[in-house]
């Protein structure tokens, strides 16, 4: 072997055999990658709105109380929409529901451009179109997660979900940065003379992104609409060591220095990553991912009887709903008002606000894989308790150190670093404990409960802000979050053992 090639070979091996990069390459196919694109674009759109929505209504001279009512009622509409769409998503086909969501978001953005003076029209259309703030409310996140659960074995779901949330965070981060930069650019160069027109321009970008996303989802395969039940315990890796399936599985279990002969075929050029056509590699992986899914699973027919929730699932669901709803109420108290708080407290410009929340989401994105690692190590319940308790403390600190902008921003960044580290553990907890045919409905019900709780949080926040007490909303929010965490750890810590058995199965 040419010694000059060794450094490149070593670097390629280390990158390729990294657990998370290898998982992205070998455990995802076209459908999962389209789902990643969907969440990236949707969160990009939400990032745009996060920076301007409150200021949009302020420009229209609505008071804080009315804005709170608007945010609350749109979330209440999302509750009804989420319930209906997720309950019938399997029967109507999950891909169709995703497409419907994209159309509704397009109509929503267009309405904010055309009917800005009509509060009632904005309210009605926003109820159907989903006004997101980065938390990804509405039924479409639940349906995407259900699709990925069916397309992926249990032991690989933390990796697949981690990448999903990473693309989500990156999309939101870019959206925040772009929104703030665009507004200041349009005003500084006098392209528009009013902030309202700048905000309408942002909604135009929002609509364009919906069109791009709608084109992308036309390439879904029928697999996204199927319920796969994986026979993990029946698979013996030793028996299939010489098949394509094993060549697909082996990288996640191999040592870092091992060489994947299926991708690097000529020993004398093993370090040359150009030896195999990228398109050929993708096609091979695409085929083996789909084949592995068929070989290791049963397709569960979608019928009226199979779609009912079992009594065991209902029992677990009720307990989890209480905890998740408290958490969501906490989030609803402050999430939409954070940009407004920093603008009023520290007089930050739109560009500075956009940069601040963009950096915050980048920090959030950087915690995605550590979140997955904690889940593998502790189990989803303990992992959620640890990270969310720390997050609650940072949240309470934000207004307590408002005498110093650096201290307050540091607390905010600490909050962003931990606030979303519970996403992967919670996804794993839900998808691992329910049957294949129940996943979509369970995730939909959880999302409905969370959205309803956030609805009341948003409503309460409007009155708090109108009373000039926004800083206390942070303290209340953190306290409620801590309460939810302690209820979770006291009620469900025993579940971790069962879930870890699935995650660590070879």
UniProtKB/TrEMBL annotation:
Compartment(s) of residence: Membrane
Transmembrane segments: 34-57, 69-89, 96-115, 121-140, 161-187, 199-220, 316-338, 350-369, 381-401, 472-495
Cellular component terms (Gene Ontology): fungal-type vacuole membrane
Chief place of localization: membrane
Top-level taxon in the UniProt lineage: Eukaryota
Source organism of this protein record: Hanseniaspora guilliermondii
Keywords: Membrane, Transmembrane, Transmembrane helix
PANTHER family per the UniProt record, alphabetical: ABR173CP, TRANSPORTER, PUTATIVE (AFU_ORTHOLOGUE AFUA_3G04000)-RELATED
A GO molecular function held by the record: transmembrane transporter activity
Topology within the bilayer: Multi-pass membrane protein
Protein name from the UniProt record: Major facilitator superfamily (MFS) profile domain-containing protein
Pfam families to which the protein is assigned, alphabetical: MFS_1
